[in-house]
Every structure is written in structure tokens, then in C-alpha cells.
Amino acid sequence: MKRGRTVVLGGGAWGTALANTFAAAGRETLLWARDAATIEAINSRGENPRYLPGISLDPTLRATSDAAVALERATLVLAVVPAQTLRAVLGSLASAIPGGVPVVICAKGIERDTGELPSQVLRSVLPGNQPASLSGPSFATDLARGLPTAVTVAAQDRTLAAGLSAALSTPRLRCYSSDDLTGVEVGGALKNVLALAAGAAAGAGLGASAQAALITRGFVELRRLGEALGGRSETLMGLSGLGDLMLTCGSSQSRNFAYGEALGRSEDLNGRPLAEGVATAAIAVRIARERGVDAPIIEAVDAILKGEQTIREAVTALMTRPLRHEAD
Ligand SMILES: NC(=O)C1=CN([C@@H]2O[C@H](COP(=O)(O)OP(=O)(O)OC[C@H]3O[C@@H](n4cnc5c(N)ncnc54)[C@H](O)[C@@H]3O)[C@@H](O)[C@H]2O)C=CC1
Ligand SMILES: O=C(CO)COP(=O)(O)O
């Protein structure tokens, strides 16, 4: 793949952390953001106090709100805005994104209104650009602090995926390539729903045993739904499925886990940071029903979020389901 300018769209926690990683590795990188104060803070003080407070960014990282100038010479674009805003953001930038340039989506979610995965959204908005997805266990604050991790970069075309993995890997970010775009996207989206469940169990004080049982059975649902949508089992067992599940279901550093925890403690949920799993839970339930996939934990998460069920009621319902063979 031709090496040139990487443009990261989105000045939130993950967009800033990724752009910072590439800049620190000496790659020509430009961060596009809409918030003037964020751009000013990155360019003049090397920090993003709103999304990555207390972290010093690489002095070479530059940010701009001028999409036309940023994207003019882009050879690679990363879309790092919330999944539910992806269509609007890409739509507004469509004329500035050069045709043929791969667009790597780093959002984790399923579009609530359509049931489309981020790559499907991209295909409908930017038919002249090949979609790819970057997903795996990777807290923005870890990466921004220079801590190492490994993720998966997927594209339908195996050669493109391998090229992207080489282009995006740095000494701190090891990118494995995959041609299972659907599996990688579904794994990243559904682990957020299960992190809400794990957080709610922790917040409600259900104990470590329940937590482990919930995550394990939740992972069965992630695999069932992922495979029903066309993802491969081994992908869902990889960094973007199991790997990210292990990370986000075990730490309050995850915004989804922390949201679930607050829910479990009956705390006020207004004004909390982004928790992608909330929107994804609703559409995942619809997709599971349409495809005849049994997903009781995902259903319970959605029902609790909608106030249709209490955590206590959900636990009783899950515990009294007909007994079954584990592997069925
Ligand atoms: N924060 C993390 O540790 C990780 C996040 N992700 C995923 O990355 C995606 C983005 O997450 P974060 O950056 O953490 O969220 P964030 O809440 O920190 O930032 C979101 C950014 O998107 C921007 N944005 C929202 N709507 C926009 C619009 N209409 N036009 C332009 N910009 C808009 C906001 O201004 C903000 O800069 C999510 O799907 C998340 O699941 C993936 C891996 C790690
Ligand atoms: O996806 C993530 C880590 O891999 C971040 O998870 P949260 O969005 O729950 O913070």
C-alpha cells in the first residue's frame, strides 16, 4: 500500500489516541475534528483535555476542522466517530474523501435504525471507497499513554487487509489482518452489549460467579448471532470478539461496563460518556428475533435499558429458563 497521509476523522478519545499513535511512529497524520477548542488544545498544547485528560500527546500531531484541506492528499482514512453518527459524518465529508482510498472504520456498533454494520453504511454513503474495520481490545487511554496492544484489521479483500495491517501497525499497536469483515464488526459491536450486562451484574452485587457465567453464556450469544450474520467462529474467538470481551467485561475503564455498573446501582444515567452498547442492544434484539437466534442475555440487557424489566426480574427469568445441553 502506498504510504502517505493518514487522516483520522473524529477528535474524541479513540480518534485522538489512534492519530497520536501514528504521529508518534513518525507517520504523516492529520486529525479532523469539529470542536474548535479540541483542535486548539491539540495544536498549541499537545493535549485533548475533554477526552484524554492528563495525557501528553506527541508534539508532531496536528488537528484541523478543514476537511477539504485535510483529506485532499489522504492515502488512508480512519473513521472514528460513534456508530450511530457514522452515516451523517461520512455523508457530510463524502465529497472531500478521495475515491479509491480505503476507509478503516474504528466504531463499534450496529446502526440502530437500519441494522446495518458500519461497513454497510460506508458502502452506501461512499460506494467508491473500500471499507475496512479496526477492532480489538484497546482502551484509548492505554494506547494514548503508549501502552501496547493488538487488534484486528479486516477487509473483504485479503491483500487489502494485509496492506492495512502493515500500514497501521506501530511498535505499540500490533494489527493482525483478517478477511472476515463481518465477524470483526459483529464481535466489536456485541461485546459492548455484554459489557453492559457484566457491569450491571457487578453494580447489582450479583457476585463473581454470576459475572463469569454471564460473560460465558453471553459469548455464546455473540458467536451465534455473529455466525448468523456471516461471521466466522474463529474470528469471533479472536481479538475483536473474545479478546475485547475479556477487556471490557472486566474493567470499569470501559464506558459500557461503567454504564452497566451505574444501572446496577440504580444511579442517574444522564450525561454519562458514550456507551455504544445501548443503541446496539436494541437493534441486536431485532436482528436476533428476525434470524431466529436465541439471545436471552442480549434481550435482557435491552429490556433493562428500556425499563421493561428490573435486574432482579431479568436474573430470575434467565435462571428459570428450560434446562438445556450446554453445547446446543
Ligand atoms: N474510547 C475507546 O477506548 C475506544 C472506542 N472505540 C470506538 O470508537 C468510536 C468512537 O469512540 P470515542 O472516540 O471513544 O468516543 P468519544 O465520545 O470520546 O468521541 C466521539 C467523537 O465523535 C465526535 N462526533 C460525534 N458526532 C459527530 C458528528 N456528527 N460530526 C463530527 N464529529 C462527531 C465527537 O465530537 C467526538 O469527538 C466508538 O464506536 C467506540 O466504540 C473503539 C475502541 C476503543
Ligand atoms: O472498545 C473499547 C476497548 O476495546 C472501549 O470500550 P468502551 O467503549 O466500553 O469504553
From TrEMBL:
It is found in: Cytoplasm. Pathway: Membrane lipid metabolism; glycerophospholipid metabolism. Keywords: Cytoplasm, Lipid biosynthesis, Lipid metabolism, NAD, NADP, Nucleotide-binding, Oxidoreductase, Phospholipid biosynthesis, Phospholipid metabolism. One of its GO terms (cellular component) is cytosol. This is Glycerol-3-phosphate dehydrogenase [NAD(P)+]. Catalyzes the reduction of the glycolytic intermediate dihydroxyacetone phosphate (DHAP) to sn-glycerol 3-phosphate (G3P), the key precursor for phospholipid synthesis. Sn-glycerol 3-phosphate binds at residues 108, 136, 138, 191, 244, 254-256. The lineage of its organism: Bacteria, Pseudomonadati, Pseudomonadota, Alphaproteobacteria, Hyphomicrobiales. InterPro entries: 6-PGluconate_DH-like_C_sf, 6PGD_dom2, G3P_DH_NAD-dep, G3P_DH_NAD-dep_C, G3P_DH_NAD-dep_N, NAD(P)-bd_dom_sf. It comes from Tianweitania sediminis. It catalyses: sn-glycerol 3-phosphate + NADP(+) = dihydroxyacetone phosphate + NADPH + H(+); sn-glycerol 3-phosphate + NAD(+) = dihydroxyacetone phosphate + NADH + H(+). Its EC number is 1.1.1.94. GO terms for molecular function: glycerol-3-phosphate dehydrogenase [NAD(P)+] activity; NAD binding. One of its GO terms (biological process) is glycerophospholipid metabolic process.
